[in-house]
Specification:
By secondary structure, this protein is an all-alpha fold. It has six helices and no strands.
Length: 168
């Protein structure tokens, strides 16, 4: 138990150590601000001379270690290339499938309309026409007079007997 407590205490700095680091970081920041003011505002020739003397380092620092260029060449370009590829897939495949299904639906609807109009409606109209035309013949036979029905039955009996006698 004592070894664990000792290693935990060693991991933390003392209060004086923490204050010392805070003061050091503030002093370094103040020194950086003072040097930048002196090099770029008061005596700009110093910064120009350092830029000429250390041209390679100046170029790398001015271009921020080329992080933006690297990011643009990898992530941005990759994202844009992927977007173009997905757009082409959407335009060619997805839109093609949607447009194709639209055309198939229109053609199927037209065929269905033609079948309904000429086959189904044609058969229904044919049945109606046959019933209407057949009714002319039946109207002559169906007079509503019992004498006519009796006469027709008598003709039927004679026709049946004639057929029976001649075919025997």
């Amino acid at each position: 138990a004592e070894a664990g407590a000792h290693s935990e205490a060693a991991a933390h700095l003392s209060l004086a150590g923490e204050w010392g680091l805070m003061v050091l970081s503030v002093l370094l920041a103040a020194l950086g601000i003072w040097l930048a003011y002196r090099f770029y505002v008061v005596h700009p020739e110093i910064s120009e001379g350092l830029a000429a003397r250390y041209a390679g380092s100046h170029r790398v620092l001015t271009n921020k270690y080329y992080v933006d260029e690297l990011y643009g060449a990898t992530f941005v370009r990759g994202t844009l290339d992927s977007a173009r590829g997905l757009w082409a897939f959407d335009r060619g495949v997805v839109d093609g499938a949607v447009d194709g299904s639209g055309w198939i639906t229109r053609i199927a609807a037209w065929v269905s309309h033609m079948i309904d109009k000429y086959v189904v409606d044609g058969l229904v109209n044919l049945v109606g026409w046959l019933a209407g035309e057949g009714s002319y013949v039946l109207r002559r036979v169906q007079t509503g007079l019992v004498q006519n029905y009796a006469l027709l039955m008598l003709f039927g009996v004679f026709a049946f007997l004639t057929l029976y006698l001649f075919t025997r």
